[in-house]
Amino acid sequence: MAPNTAVEVQSVGGIPTAVAGPDVHRDITVKWFLLGAVGYFLIVGIVALIIAAKFVWPDFLGSIQYFTYGRMRPLHVNGMLFGWLLGADMGLAYYIVPRLCGVRLWSEKLGVATSILWNIIILSAVVTLLGGYQKGLEYADLPTPVAILVVIAWVMFGVNIFATIATRKYKQMYVSTWYLMGTILWTAFVYLTGNFATLLTTGVNQANLNWMYTHNAVGLIFTPAGLAVGYYFIPRASNTPLYNHKLSMIGFWSLAFVYVWTGAHHMLHGPISQWLQTNLDRLFGHVADPGLGGGLQLHRHHERPVASVQRQRLAQVPDVGNGVLSAHVLSGSDAQPALGERDRLQDRLDSRARAHGGDGHLLIHCHGRRVLCDSANL
């Protein structure tokens, strides 16, 4: 294990970052995860095209059992979730946390080992899912042995990240660090529930647990990881400090305490208790709090008088700029005079989404993961 000595840092956009120098951050783990994630994204994208073709030509590849819809669809879902999104999130966490802590990654060897195990997991998922070995639960299709490997890899990832944070140079933690720590803890809870607790029950109880997992896989795994990426790269790319760190923390704790309880909305008017439906309706209104907080952050951040140069700088980074514009549009937190601008931005976002053959939400999520490539040279 390489010595984890503190490195000299400076502030870029109010975010501590290492001063350029030889071998400050090796980023070997980062490259392994991000390259793998991009590769899986392209491969699974081809799987998605095959599935889409089956809706037009139902007999397309229908004589080959490995390419039937019932096997291809779980491969596409799990490939995008674990191969692309979660793999990219882990790679970006390995990039962001050491820089926010002012130290090197606690163990580059452990990180590389985690990456190797993660690739073994993805390849095992391809073989088992195409072979018809699956549990038949949404987002939890992976056979139990493969799911156990996911747990082991996540423990390795969590140990490395938390050990890096424990040796940090700065006492106060930036909001991205909070979101990434939350992602690690929430993922452990959510994944164990969806992949193991569901096997201990049947019927309505199993369905309720499964949709709790499915719902929170989006809200407590990919959402906080995406927010961590945005809170890090947007201020850094624009070289402008975050508008209000306390506001971002309000969004963090709102997500932590509210989102987990609303998973049953997938079963509204279904065979679940009425009190559960009533309570989740009450809590669901607060799910918007993190988004509104983030949107207000970006709006205030973007409207500062000193931000004209930073806006031009952001405009030169397409994916960061689209992330800012998308957050404005989706949060609905823009001031009334900016409605005309928001409409133009919405049209731009919609045209980009149509060009990519998907919806704006997924486009935003993918752009957030690609931002590292465009902002690394800023």
Short structural summary:
By secondary structure, the chain is mainly α. The chain contains 13 helices and two strands; from the N terminus they run ββααααααααααααα.
Brief descriptors of the model:
378 residues, mainly alpha, two-stranded antiparallel ribbon
Average pLDDT score: 78
**Structural class category:** mainly alpha
Q: How far apart lie the N and C ends?
A: 30 Å
In helices, the fraction of residues equals: 55-70%
What is the strand arrangement across the widest sheet? 1-2
Strand proportion = under 5%
Gyration radius from CA atoms, angstroms: 21 Å
Whole-number tally of structural domains: 2
Shape: globular
Low-confidence stretches: 1-9, 18-22, 318-343, 353-378
Number of strands: 2
The string of secondary-structure elements, in order, is EEHHHHHHHHHHHHH
In this structure, how is the largest beta sheet organized?
2 strands, antiparallel
Figure out the total of helices. 13
Give a structural overview.
- The protein is mainly alpha-helical and 378 residues long.
- The protein has two domains: 25-171; 233-378, no CATH class.
- It is 69% helix and 2% strand.
- The chain has 13 helices and two strands, in the order ββααααααααααααα.
- The chain has helices at 28-56, 69-101, 108-130, 144-166, 175-195, 203-238, 245-258, 274-284, 288-303, 308-315, 318-331, 339-355, 360-375; strands at residues 9-12, 15-18.
- A two-stranded antiparallel ribbon has the order 1-2.
- The longest helix is centred in the middle third of the chain and has 36 residues, at 203-238.
- The relative contact order is 0.09.
- Mean pLDDT is 78; it is low at 1-9, 18-22, 318-343 and 353-378.
